[in-house]
TrEMBL record:
Entries under SUPFAM superfamilies matching the protein: P-loop containing nucleoside triphosphate hydrolases
Span of domain ABC transporter: 2-223
Molecular-function annotations in GO: ATP binding; ATP hydrolysis activity; transmembrane transporter activity
InterPro entries xrefs: AAA+_ATPase (IPR003593), ABC_transporter-like_ATP-bd (IPR003439), ABC_transporter-like_CS (IPR017871), ABC_transpr_LolD-like (IPR015854), MacB-like_ATP-bd (IPR017911), P-loop_NTPase (IPR027417)
The protein, known as: ABC transporter ATP-binding protein
Keywords from the UniProt entry: ATP-binding, Nucleotide-binding, Transport
Length: 224
């Protein structure tokens, strides 16, 4: 599913140059559940951005589902994100004026799927994450945990090859965090590939493989 070779990411130039990633080699198979861990500045978020096609490496090659991502232009990267990737963010990134169902269906606006068909798919996914009774509610009318469930449903709406979750429980209390992680565990058991960034050991424990980073390098890669 994911094949990264000698990935480097450099920010700035000359005296201001910062090497955020040093020669990363990483393979992730289909249906793995991987947690990427590290302190602030370790490079985990930079790596997530590269793997999620939100950025391009300075050097090295990256393939996602057999497609060479590292040589694509911005338009091609956008198409890959829309067709193959689902994102779950710490801050939810829901549009405040849209209902839960409309937020979930939003990524389908950039496809050929008709609006009504997209809303039907969105409603089914909201049922799946336990929010069938909140379909017409807007984000401000929901709790943090409910908003994250909406974000998970949105990540699934384009039937992605891989789900990237960036600190998915970072803004949630422990009980709600456990509920969200159980949803991700269920999705993994249903066949989804999940790559999650977290700094919390108790959250990483839900994954089946833990990659630890420090100073832009992978220092440990362990199957749990």
């Amino acid at each position: 599913m994911i094949e990264a070779r000698q990935l480097r990411k450099v920010f700035g130039q000359g005296e201001n140059e910062v090497i955020a990633l040093h020669d990363i080699n990483l393979s992730i198979a289909e249906n793995e559940f991987v947690a990427i861990m590290g302190t602030s500045g370790s490079g985990k978020s930079t790596l997530m951005n590269l793997l999620g096609c939100l950025d391009r490496p300075s050097e090295g090659s990256y393939q996602l589902n057999g497609k060479l991502i590292s040589e694509m232009n911005d338009e091609e990267l956008s198409a890959i994100r829309n067709q193959h990737i689902g994102f779950i963010f710490q801050s939810f990134h829901l549009l405040p004026r849209l209902t839960a169902a409309e937020n979930v269906a939003l990524p389908l606006r950039y496809t050929e799927i008709p609006t009504e068909q997209g809303l039907v798919r969105a409603q089914a996914l909201l049922e799946q994450v336990g929010l069938g009774h909140r379909m017409q509610h807007k984000p401000h009318e929901m709790s943090g945990g409910q908003r994250q469930r909406v974000a998970i449903a949105r990540a699934l709406v384009n039937k992605p090859k891989v789900i990237f979750a960036d600190e998915p429980t970072g803004n949630l209390d422990s009980k709600t965090s456990d509920e969200i992680m159980q949803i991700l565990t269920d999705l993994h058991q249903q066949g989804n590939t999940i790559v999650m960034v977290t700094h919390e050991d108790e959250i990483a424990a839900y994954a089946r493989r833990v990659i630890r980073m420090r100073d832009g390098k992978i220092i440990e890669d362990k199957v749990c």
